[in-house]
Amino acid sequence: MHWLIQRQLKSKNAASRRKAAQRLCDAPHPHALGALDEALGDEDAEVRLLAATALGKLEAEGRLEPLFRALRDRDGEVQKAAILALKRTSDERVPVALLPLLRHPNAGVRGCAAQVLEFVGWRPAKPEEEMWFLVAKGQCSRVAAFGAAALLPLEMVLNAGPYSLCVAAVQALGDIEDQRTVRLLLKALKSNDAAVCVAAVGSLAKVGGEQASEPLIAMLQHKNGQVRVAAVEALGSLGVAAAAAPLRALLSDPVWEVRRTAVETLVRLKDEGAVELLTRALADKDSDVREATASALGALSDRRAIGPLVLALKDSTSGVRRIAAAALSRIDENWSASAEARAAVEELKPALYDRDPDVRYFVGQLLVSLGAAEPEVTRDTGAEAVSASAVEKRRKLAVSLFLAILCDPDRDLRQAAAVALGRLGELRAEPALARTLQDPDATVRSAAERALQLLTAARLHDKGQKSLEPAQAGPGAAEPGEAAAPGTKAPPAGEVRIEEIVLCSGSGEVLCECESKSLELRLRLLEQIEQQAMQLTSLAPLGQFDRLEILTPEGRIVCQVQPARRLFVRRAGTAVAAA
């Protein structure tokens, strides 16, 4: 039977030769060694590949020389088959034959050679061998440690590597302190693959210096949006003032992420000439861009932005309204009394009839605070019922969030939740507060007991019972006109007290505020903490940010930022060990 197969290997029909080679590959025989050696010279690459594979399965002594010749085959797949065929031998000539292939232009051949060399126990003896070995394994980031010597292997990867390796090579170039890398990075900017271009932009920003400015500005016109985003960020990190004009043009880019990044970069460049264009961006169709723009205008602190920011207070997105309010406070603490704000009032009034009840309520309250409308006027617009509904919805959400906070491991947050639940007067909080009477912390238990007394007083008041003495004012106390529970006592001197509570929803809407000295400053602090947390988690896999603790001479502040809530709690006094 083998004579027939060997005869078919010499057939003029390529399909017949492939079939014969496949049969020898499936069931190799030592008598076929000569025929397989001859098949390695076949004009058909698949026949040569199958022959190399079959030789690797033979135990015959003469199989190595044909395989060594196959390592020089013109087809990369045949070379890889020959490399893998040598994996099963411990002959000392194998590492010597495979070592040059670590510099092969074909990434697959390099990787295959590195794999087999590692399998047979070979280890680099010189730094140069280690460098090429790492490149063959695709570990370009480690190659950067060799400095300028790594430029040649990294350039080889860029010239003939798959895009994933090209990206790694470009990133490695950014870690080499040698100006010769600029030439390679400028070449990488012309890649047809967007991922390679993005990596090249980032690396060029790290090593390019002033000579990188012009090429990076040119990349602002790249057809791919992610490349434009990378170029904008790079110009911002380099502080290229000449980029301001082309960056302003990107405020109308069709990709929202490009527009948002352009806004942020113009602030980094402190481009005061962009203020007018940025005020127009407050009307961008994307809420993320509007939020970034409101924050940017606050950072630039230009009074020309007051009017547009006041109008942004009627934005349909609560985050934009919140950031706009914080930005106004950054520009002028007394912005509501400014001429710019007064001039924008008339344009705000139509928002009293907005479809969104939250907008109607927010603008109504704002106009009242500005003295531009009487409370009766806002009620006449039909906003009264909507406002009451919105307030009730916020109160219920606040109660739900505080009920969850009652289980928080932080005793200050648990005490604050108990205080707030007593103040809110929601009877459905009674079971949870009753369970909190078993809290390990005595002050938390005391706060829960006081809250339950307030809820009992509220229930009796609702049933028309006799009015009781007002509770002591302060966080957790009843509002003026509310009844206090029998036996309610003022906290003893020196006791840990919750002085201030601000609770917002995940979108930033204020749900509950107790004795806040400066609500805008608190909201701005929570916003900045959230932004810093996002930056930290993007730089390193540190897990999800939860809270920030600030120790003060008077006590402690806890700022919690979670997807569902933002919480500010200020405590006075020193907490004692749990009782």
What proportion of the residues form beta strands (DSSP E)?
5-15%
Segments where pLDDT lies below 50 for 5+ residues? 376-386, 465-493
The value of Rg in angstroms is: 36 Å
Task: Kindly report how far apart the N and C termini lie.
Answer: 91 Å
Average pLDDT for all residues: 83
Description:
The chain has 579 residues and is mainly alpha-helical. It has a domain of 167 residues: Dynein light chain 2a, cytoplasmic (Beta-Lactamase), CATH 3.30.450.30. The protein contains 29 helices and five strands. It has a five-stranded antiparallel β-sheet, sandwiched between helices. A hairpin with a 3-residue loop joins strand 4 and strand 5.
Secondary-structure topology with pairs:
Elements: H1 2-8, H2 14-26, H3 33-39, H4 45-57, H5 64-70, H6 76-85, H7 93-98, H8 107-119, H9 127-136, H10 140-143, H11 151-160, H12 163-173, H13 181-188, H14 194-207, H15 213-218, H16 225-238, H17 244-249, H18 256-268, H19 275-281, H20 287-300, H21 306-312, H22 318-331, H23 339-348, H24 357-369, H25 375-405, H26 411-424, H27 430-436, H28 442-462, E1 497-505, E2 510-514, H29 519-539, E3 547-551, E4 555-561, E5 565-572
Antiparallel strand pairs: 1-2, 1-5, 3-4, 4-5
Helix pairs in contact: 2-4, 3-4, 4-5, 4-6, 6-8, 8-9, 11-12, 12-14, 13-14, 14-16, 16-18, 18-20, 19-20, 20-22, 21-22, 21-23, 22-29, 24-25, 25-26, 26-28, 27-28
